[in-house]
């Protein structure tokens, strides 16, 4: 029998966040102690899903055993459980200030990632393109080519706290552009887009007839008393799809509860929405029981955040202060999420993947190389997750400082 050859499009699928783990696991199997600063999975560290939300699913399962009307072992409606969609719509209206949202404007998905991939696949034809932030979450850059779309990366301005460079946008958009992606707060930089940036994005999308994809999965994880502004709350005549879920704000990534909210004041997305709905029907449904956690989560008082935010902010501060003391490394202060994206000066001919792999091999500190998220040519970065406890972070940053000094010495390089 001949060798089975995979589809050509799979060659374009990369996901640096997990690809780097393969090497780490091999080192770990040989006895190397690994300090994991690579993946944004809060329960891996010292964060737990609120107990009251975990109880909801148990109670629903028990009730469904005796009440056929509550049978959650069945497929749910393909577009989602009404109770969950109603709560999301109410939350969008009352807390995110998105006008006119109804349960019919919400669809439930297997995590926000499924909503993102379906929105992409239902929009692009071969040769079409979508604009994505650079740096940005690699799901977008890996999935757009899978569906035969082209990727246009627009650079965020590190010198301006990673805000959007609008001259850059105008230079890159073209007649085949269908949508623009905003990640707010941003993964991997932690920037929280300000109102001016958001309004400029909306004006830009209107000028070029684009759908806005806004990824707001970290919208409640903000520091220094900052406030989040939902893009759709300011968009009066531009179609916006807002992606959200329970994974980050409610410490439950493995439960795979996500959604998309459609904001379409001028009804420009009617056909596109039906295309998405067809794809949702074809995949049957999102996980049924977990959807019943949405209402108690969104309708609750978010009391767990009163404990989580101060811990994360302290770890953010440790990260920011220690990294900026290392010669050759500088870091913009994250405003939200739980990531930092420090800049590392590198010798000529060395990229940040080489730096990160050597760091891992020598110290066991696992971070993700910056080119996996996109960055301006000639720059080097790495992404750090500051979810680990204070002691682990301090130890890791001390090791990074020691390693970086040795790395520079080996390459006979002096950072500016």
Could you please describe the fold and organization of this structure?
By secondary structure, this protein is an alpha/beta fold. It has 2 domains: 8-48 and 304-410, Alpha-Beta Complex (Aspartate Aminotransferase, domain 1), CATH 3.90.1150; 51-299, Aspartate Aminotransferase, domain 2, CATH 3.40.640.10. It has helices at residues 16-29, 51-64, 82-94, 111-121, 138-146, 166-172, 195-207, 231-234, 270-282, 294-299, 305-323, 352-363, 390-410; strands at residues 35-36, 106-110, 129-134, 150-157, 163-164, 177-183, 211-215, 240-245, 257-263, 329-330, 339-340, 343-344, 365-366, 368-369, 382-385. The strands form 4 sheets. It has an 8-stranded mixed beta sheet, sandwiched between helices. The protein has a 3-stranded antiparallel beta sheet with strand order 11-15-14. The chain has a two-stranded parallel ribbon with strand order 1-13. Helix 4 packs parallel to helix 5 and helix 12 packs across helix 13 (390-410). It is globular. The mean pLDDT is 92.
For CATH, the homologous superfamily of the largest domain is named as Type I PLP-dependent aspartate aminotransferase-like (Major domain)
CATH architecture descriptor name of the largest domain? 3-Layer(aba) Sandwich
Reported by name, the CATH topology of the largest domain is Aspartate Aminotransferase, domain 2
**Poorly predicted regions:** none
Question: Main beta sheet: strand number and arrangement?
Answer: 8 strands, mixed
Work out the number of β strands: 15
The helix content is 25-40%
Strand arrangement across the biggest beta sheet: 2-9-8-7-6-3-4-5
Number of domains: 2
The sequence of SSEs as H and E is HEHHEHEHEEHEHEHEEHHHEEEHEEEH
Tally of helical segments: 13
Structural class: alpha/beta
Question: What distance separates the N and C termini?
Answer: 58 Å
Mean pLDDT: 92
Strand content: 5-15%
From the spread of the alpha carbons, the general shape counts as: globular
Radius of gyration: 22 Å
- Indicate the CATH class of the largest domain: Alpha Beta
